[in-house]
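Technical appendix A lists one of the benchmark inputs used to test multi-chain prediction within the project. The record comprises two sequence entries:
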Amino acid sequence: MLIQGCSEIKDLVAEYLTQNLRASLSTREQGCTITLPLKSLDDRWVFVIVESKYDYYIVHDGGKTESALFSQGIKMSDSDEQFNAAIASKYGVKIEHGMIQKACRREGLCETILAVAESAIVMTAQLVSSQLIEKDAEEVHSRVFDTLLLWKPEDMMIEENVKIESAFLDTRVDFVARAEASARRSATIKILPPSNPKGRAERYGFMRHEMKTNSEYKDWANLAVILGAETWSEPALRIVRRFADQTIEVRNDGKAEVEARIPKLMNELTVSKAADLSL
Amino acid sequence: MPEDDPVPIAGIFDCVPKLLKERKWFDVSLDTILRDIDDGKRVDLQTVHQTLDETSGEQSKLPLRLRVSGTSSSEEGWHIMLLLYNRPIDGFGYEARFCDIHGVEQTGWHRHIWNHKSQGAADKVLASMLDKGKISFRDFLIRTLKEMKISYPKDDDYANPRLL
């Protein structure tokens, strides 16, 4: 039977919302857990905790959102945290001590509950495609790190997210395999996601140019991992190939080859020049 | 497969059921984890687990991560997760409302269950061992690590082999 008019639809929605709105005592004293009829992008019913304090309320997510994202493999890098803070700010809430939260008076309680919940839901966009491209790069970053730990010779240290200092502009590489003995040479790995390839290639070229003119970095080898290589323009690829000692050009259907190629390439790159000449 | 290829390209998660039954070792004590949590940090531990590949009969090395997060004052946000190649394979958390693997609505602590078909650990079952009264973050870690067959040093001195 067809639904008759707006008011019947409204009644149906109101009934659904009421049936799916839950309230239970929180694990905290004087706290109430409200579970809303809303799901996050990782398929969780979103809940918020309301704590009564004198003449006002604190509404928060118990740190659940950040914790769930982290446990599912998100790195929670500076850019992830900035992304979350920006979302929270749009909803007029804050992230403090890992919790999405806001204090309010009784008259603003319902709005605040929804703002915290909506903010929590939107933050989980990172899990599906927030920056799907960057998320992809993040996953490759983690896999490369794992591969480096398995590869690591005893006389090398693996460092993550290392700043490369320059007089003009500091940059970062994903990893440095730092030589602790003269028989080895330090090497960096830079992962280049497929968004804005030309800009990335130019910044990469700038970084490599600066490294070559800096006594601290000039002998370091570099491996560039180019993600979604089939989407890069030929000029952008040429810049990276020109400045990197080695490249791994990964097509979207061939991400697994990164792990397969890194150990061999790192062995080649980290042989010191002196050792290389004596062979 | 070349000797220097640590990750089989196909079927990299075939080993998960066997891995979950084996004892894993993370070289960080509970005190260190709790100290980091109290300092507002997220804990991300790595280890390399050696296991026998039953197909090839050779030892294979698996990169594992253990992620612990939350604030000690709010147990609704506590999470512990074991990841292989950065993919969750086992773990525990809290949800006020969730559907378990049988489609039954539940509330409270749950365990993530590996699903070979979806190659993920999004499925959940009720974790009643955590529902016995109010627990501290330390209790949460002790109970979940035991269930996940994860061992750790008893204190920080044991955690650092250079001091032995």
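Chain B touches chain A through 44 residues (CB under 8 Å). Chain B is about 20% helix and 40% strand. Comparable benchmark entries are summarised in Table A2.
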